[in-house]
Structure formats: structure tokens, C-alpha cells
Amino acid sequence: MSAVGTPTRRLEGRDKVVGATRYTADLDVGGLLHVQLVLSHLASARIRSIETSAARSVPGVVDVVVAGDLPEQDVAGPDQPLATQRVFYAGQPVAAVIATSEAAAHDGAAAVEVDLEETDAVADAVAAMQDSSPVVLDVQEEADEGDASMHGAAAGNESEPVERPRNVSAVASAKRGDAGAAMAASGVTVKATYSVAAVHHTAMEPHVSTVRPEPGGGLTVWSPTQGPFALRDELAEKLDIPAHKIRVVPMPVGGGFGGKVSLLEGLLALLAIRGNRPLRLVLTRRQVFAFAKGAPAARFEIEIGAKKDGTLTALRAKFSYDNGASAGWHGGISSAFLAGTYRWPAVDITGYEVSTNKTPVDAYRAPGAPQTYFALESAMDELAQKLDIDPIELRLRNAVREGDIDGQGAKWPRVAFIECLEEARNHPLYTAPLGAGEAVGIAAGSWGGARTPSAAGCRVEPDGTLSILIGTPDVSGATTGLAMIAADAFGYPVEKVRIETGETGVAPYGAVAAGSQTTYSLGGAVHEAAVEARRQLLEIATEQLEAAPEDLEIVDGRVAVRGVPERFVEITELVTLSTQFMGTFRPVQASGRSAVQTASPQFTVHIARVKADPETGAFALTGYAAIQDVGRAINPPEVEGQVHGGVAQSVGRALGEQLVYDAEGQLKTGSLLDYEVPTVDQLPGIDVRMIEVPSPVGPLGAKGVGEPPAVPGAAAVANAVSRATGVRVRDLPIDRSRLVIPS
Amino acid sequence: MKPAPFDYDDPRSVDEAIGLLARYGDECKVLAGGQSLVPLMNFRLARPGRLVDINGIESLGQVKVENGRLLLGAMVRHAQVERSNDIAARWPLLHDAIVWVGHSQIRNRGTVGGSVAHADPAAELPCALAALDAKFHVLSRRGPRVLRWDQIFVSEFTTSLAPDELLTAIEVPPQDPSTGVAFVEFARRHGDFALGGAAVSITLARNGTCSDVAVALLSAGPRPVRAEEAERRLKGGQVDEAAIKQASAAAVQGLHPTSDLHGSREYRVKLLQVMTERALTKAVHLATRRAA
Fold first, then answer.
1. Mean per-residue pLDDT over chain B, rounded
2. Which end of chain B is more exposed for a tag (fewer CB within 10 A), N or C?
3. At the fourth CATH level, which superfamily is domain A25-120+202-291?
């Protein structure tokens, strides 16, 4: 029986549930010292002085370090491990206290006196683009598209050399046809401004790392990183140490979602080298909000037009991302989604990357997509209402199909947008009658999906267990799926397969666990390694059984001659033969490699039913469905789990998650009391419908599944609330007061 | 997360506790359930030099009924109130209010005395105690005092307790069995601080007129608010839908709840009115059934 497609429990699930998993913060390292950071309390300031003597006299404090104590770093001001002369956001590290206990480090940090000379801050992206605004970044940096491509988004839209407003580091644009003329000739248009608040991953495990200097100038780094090799290479470059001297040990990831590739490790490495002691730093939740990079806020001015029959004519959009004190790279992604989701004859899109005096931003599960699809799918819903057309019907008439132009001017491969919409149209949550105060909303989303060349190793253990060695950590349960792929390829039940994620010194190269690419990138390598291991094993058995390899099969832990079950050899025996002293057979040691050549874009449609309270503005989700093209579900319940989590995160953007800053750049929602992560009673059961249109290139037909479910939820909920209340929601999260008090 | 260093005492008797308070006064804070104080200390928003931990004083943890009055020791946990059948039957408003307090983990640890002494205007218990005309027993080396709700609650997070005084017990008068009660509130998520809420206790005469009523609001001002105008309008009259609507409108007249990122003043007033209306409707429904 095939393991792939058979519901299988997560291999690492039990340990996590019973609390047996050992996370980074649980790790004992001899001679360990503890680090606490002193963060800037102002959003924009010059550093006058940092007084450390009081902190040094706190019992247990070993050292207090400021920027001047560390070797100079060739990075932009906000990215300095410790602020040099200026601070660019409240939360930027300005000093580090090293102590014999975590408690002493906290006490020491509280005793550091930072004297700042406040300078003008700008905390709002629109204000930052005015000529009168203070300049946020010292040097206007070009946006780094490398980050975007890592997440598999369609970046790389041409940037036009247009005149940039102040604090704009990059411009994304797309033009097709004459959007002005097409809009003017449209029978119906919708023009509105949509805004999406900044949010944070709020992974359960805060950012944490332990770094130990090694004799000979090397480093060992224990981190719950999504990308051990990416982290290793980044450290090698920053510290000017050969990459092979840095061992990154990937630890279990207690929630990543794009926020855990690297953050603390560079600073910790510098501090550890300086004092020649192993160091650990665990951020507090408040520090996570203030210092660990979340997802950017965005604002979209959108105009879309259609003929009276619902055929779309044109899209015009101006948008901006509020990147905090960083350059940002989401714009190209947004531009591609805006231009490429529907069959627009004409588009005219300009997007700005804006810097402000707030915490820098980075990737969060499908970076750019939830923001863009909230705006696009809200506008589509408004258009459907104006045209008095069913919102799914409107999308069906205009959805992209294979061969249509995608967001970058290329052609869409076979995609399953239509299949998702058809499934939604017939879903009981969509068709069932509505109760009083109830409405149903839908929204679509898509994701391009990343891919990175990857390798895998494979051997057979003395007890017959098949061990697969990879270099990509498990952030999503992906290793269970990989084990299933290996099991089928080798001819084993999944229980006899184990996946080991090795440290960078020994593991085969593996993709960053991001961009919905783990299974997509590694699946082929694992498959190839397992097939090769089987070949090697059968080769040994051939001599034992005097039969040709093609006549052999693996059954119940044995290699047997097909059709002659009494002629067999135990696999454990084959392992012994190939590993024993004076043995004559070569050990099973296989490797597999893969480099998927093209992306397999994924489409999804969400359905949300809400019931609104007309007096208070409260609303409750009364039903939810997520329909998604997954190519092929390797482990169906795992895919379902991924969708559940993604839905919770995208719906959270509608329900209340937001990083609120005041005009001075102070974070007002810096704890879980004020930052509203959705609670379990706010979420209904989620019906997951998988559409399986196999990828021609993904392993066994699989496509990425992790990011699409995090995309359309906010728009689906907002569309439902708008229809239930008659008040159009154009801002996330949804302001309940606006639903009952006219603005 | 770690609080600033502090000294610590864990007295075993009320006498020992008030001795410590007399000696250290302003320097110290009383630690009861710690559900508000400890997070504030961990955030270093509160930095008491000394904690007087009263968790070890057994006599403060008792629920007693004396002469028909309920006496809650200051260290009685929310969960004790929540699980007491006697309280549910005879002081149902307390039971109805307590289930809105935080989450079960918080109710297991949080105490009635701590909630009162913390004096958060968004807290459920002070609001319910205001509706119930509770009395607050306070002790210091200088002697005992008994305070009404409008004497103990002064402002946001401020009571009239002197630094050397310990809140020892809360006394709730007996309630007419025919009384109908309701406690409703509006929070973003269950367990969040309420943006508005109302506690109502109403007794109807045989002819259906209102013989007694108390309406208390939470998150309506710097301390619990009794909606006296609403009570005045309801007393002696028939309590129909129109009367409830009028009373609810009167209840929020002149209120100035604070605007913050979770809700504007205007929205909070709107919510308070709706909560009052819903609490009155529910309480009247129960009172009508009981009067019949």
C-alpha cells in the first residue's frame, strides 16, 4: 500500500504534544552565559552616551557591550548589531548585557542608562512621502529582491526610473494597454482606497539562539532557524569566517512563518567571539514585537472597471508599503498579483517602498499576498455588488487560465483557479440559505511558490530503519511527507523511515523552509535518494539470493525473490554484511538531488459566513471553507492542518491583529494583551477542500501548500461583514465601531 | 521577563500582615493572586520595594454566610466563587459576573480581594459589588473600618485604602430571592478587558412594577458607575421595553469613558447603552418569572 496519500500522523507530533521536544532555550551548554538587550526607547535619535557602570556593578553581570566595543560592520544603520550613532526605530538594540544568569542579565539591562537626543521621527508612510518629512534611512538603499525571490513570489517587475517621493527606496510598476482609455470606456467602475495593518508572526517560541565560539576560529550556532544554510552563509560573510567553520545546528522551530531565518545570531556571534564564551539570548514577547521584524502595512488606491456583462476592462493601482526602517521588497509581488490574477486588457500599476521610523519588516507567510488580495478581492466584491452579479460568477468570467498573461508578462502554466471557483460555487456554505444578520463572503488568492536546488542523503540503520538526512528544518510537518515519499520509493512502511535534519557541517544542502518550497524542492531529492538506497541494497541481496535485482522485492523488512517468498534475506543481515569488519560489500549510502525547473503556482478560494450584531458591530464567523489546489496531497491531514493555520493567520488580520504605532513611532500593541491574536472561540470549523491538479514538475505532482491559505481569509471575512452590515470594510483589521457608528 | 529586585515577606496571620504594612507602608505592595501585579512587575511597570504575600494566611481564604450576609475573605479565589452552588443560588449576580473574569487559569489564581484592591474600572467584580451594595472590611494597626463601594473605589487603580491597611473581607447583603439579575459585557475577545458592561439587579412587585433596582456599569468611568438616573426612572414603574430603552439611554447620559486604541469614547458609550439594555431585558425576564 502506498504511503503517499494515506493520512499519516506527524512523526514529530507526539513529542511536541507531550512536551518532550527540546527547543533551543532548553539546551544546556557548558559555561553558558546569558545576554539581554537594551532597546532604544525612542524611534529617532542621536546617541549622546550610554552609561554602563551601574549595570556592570549588578551582581552576576560579566560585561556590558556597546557598538564601539565591536568590530565595525558594513551594514546600514538600522541593521547594525548594536546602534552606532543613531537609532532608527524604538526597539533597536543599543547595548547588550552579558551575565551569569538570565535574571542578572535582565537586571543589568535595566541599569544601563541610554541618553538619547531625540530627532524628528515619521511613523506614517503617507506622511513619510511628503517633502517636509524627515529622512529615515541615511543612505537610500535599493530594495533587495533576493528576499522576495526566496519566498517564491513573482518579484522582478521592472522598476521605472520615475521621480521618487521622499523616503521611497524602490518603485514597482506594471503597464499593459491604455488603462486610462479602457477605464473611461467601462460601463461600471469601482474606485476605493484599502489599507492593511502591519502584523506580526507571533510565533509561540520567541526568537532565541545559542552561539559557542570553537577552537580554531569556528562557531557553533544553535537556532530554530528556517534556513540553516542561509544563516551559515550570512554569518560567514558578516564575520569573515569561512562557511565550513560555522556549524549551524537546526533546532526544532516553535513557529517560523518567515520570521525565523536570522535575527539574533550575528550579534550573538560577535559577543561570543569577544568574550570567548558560549552565549544564549532569548527575547521576551515584548522584545519580539519591538525588535523582531513583522509584516509591513500597505495601502492600495485601486480603480477597476468592467463592462455591464461583468467582463473586466482595466485596473489602475497606486500602492505603498510601510517598511519601517528598512528598504522593503514586497512591491514587485503586489504588482504581479494585481496584474496577473484576472484577464485585464489594460493595467497601470505603481507601487512605492516607503521607509518610516518603525521596526523593520520582513517576510511573513506569503509576503505581500494577503495585503494585495485584500485590496483586489474587496474591490472585486464591490464591483460584483455594483453589477449585481454573483461574486463567484464575476470571478469565473475573468479568472486567468493556462496561457493567459501572468503578472510579469509571461504565460500562466496550467493553473486551477477555475476549478477552485467552481468548487466554491457549489459548496454548501455558499449555497445554504442565510440566517438573520448573516452573510457570506468569498475571496480568491494565489501564490507563485519558490524552489531551490536541494539534496538528500540516505542509509539503512542496523535495525533496518531507513534514515534520510536533509538540511531543511521542519517548520510545517513537511518531514512526515518526505518520509512518506521515501517509504514508497524504498518499499517500506512509513514507520520504518526516519528523517534527520543535520547540522550544516554534514547535512546535504537544503532549501530554506520558506516559500512553500520544502516538499516541492526536497521531495525529488528524497525520492531519488531512497530509490538509490533501494538499488544499493538489492545489489547486495542479488549476490546473497542469486537473483537479478529486478526479480527482488522488499517485503516485511526482508528482501525476497518475487514469487518465491521462501528465498529471502533480512535487511538487517544486508546491513551487517555491508558494514562489518572485514566485510566485502559496500555500505548503503545513497544521495539524491533535485532542482525543480519551474514554479507550480497555486490558487485558492475561501468562503466565510458571518453573523453580525447590528447594535455592537460584533460579528461571529458561522462557517468557513478553504478550497485550494495542492497539486497532490502527499499527507492529506497535514495539508489540512497547514490550511487551518493559514486561515487562522489570514482571518486574524481581519479580526484584530495589528501593530499600532503612535505618531512618535511608539508601539502601542507590544504585548499579547493588546495585540489580538485570534482565540480558538473566534474561529469556526474550517472545511478544507483540496483540488488536485497535479504539477507536471513537482514531486509526485505536489505543489506548495503552506502559503496560499494565509492569503484570502481577511478579504473573505471583510466581504462577508460588508454584505452582512451594509457597511463596506476597506481597512484591516475590521473596526467594529465603524459598523455601528457612521464615520 | 523578570521583575526588578524586591524584598519579600509571607506572613501567616492577618495581625502579622498588618504589622508589616504598618512598618513598611508605601514601600510595599500586598501580593494576593498576583494576576495583575505580577505582570506589571514583570513588565517593570510596577517596582514595589517589598511584597507582603498574603497567600499563606488561611483565614482570608474562607467563604462564609453569617446572618444571611455573604462574607468573602480577601483571598477567596474567583474560581471558588464560580464553583459555589450557594453563591450561584443566593447571589447569582456574583456568579454571573465572575465567569467573565479573564480565563479559567486566571480565575483559579485571582482573588476577590485582589480584584477590589487593584480597582481596575474594567474589572467585573467591583462593578457587580457596586450593584450589590457590598461593604468592604479593612484592618490596620489603627483599627478596623467598613467602607461602602463608593467609599473604597476612588479612581482608576486607586482605592481609599491607606498604605498600612489590608482589605480583609467583602460583605454582600442578602438578596431577595425574587430578584432577577444579569451581567453582560462586550469584549473584543473573551477574557479581554471589557469595552463596556452592565450589572443589573431588579425586583418586581406582584403588580409588575419595579420595587428595587440596581444598575452598575463597568468601563464607564474611572471607577464603577451606578446609573442612578436610570434606577430612579425604573423604580415604581412598569418595566416594559420602552422603559428599558429610556433607562438605558439615561444610564449613559454624561458618561465619559476613556478613548483608546480598542474603542473610542463614542463607541464605548454606545456599547454601554446596548449592554445596559440587554442586561435589563434579561434581568427583568428572570424577575418576571420569579415574581410569578
1. 96
2. C
3. Aldehyde oxidase/xanthine dehydrogenase, a/b hammerhead (3.90.1170.50)
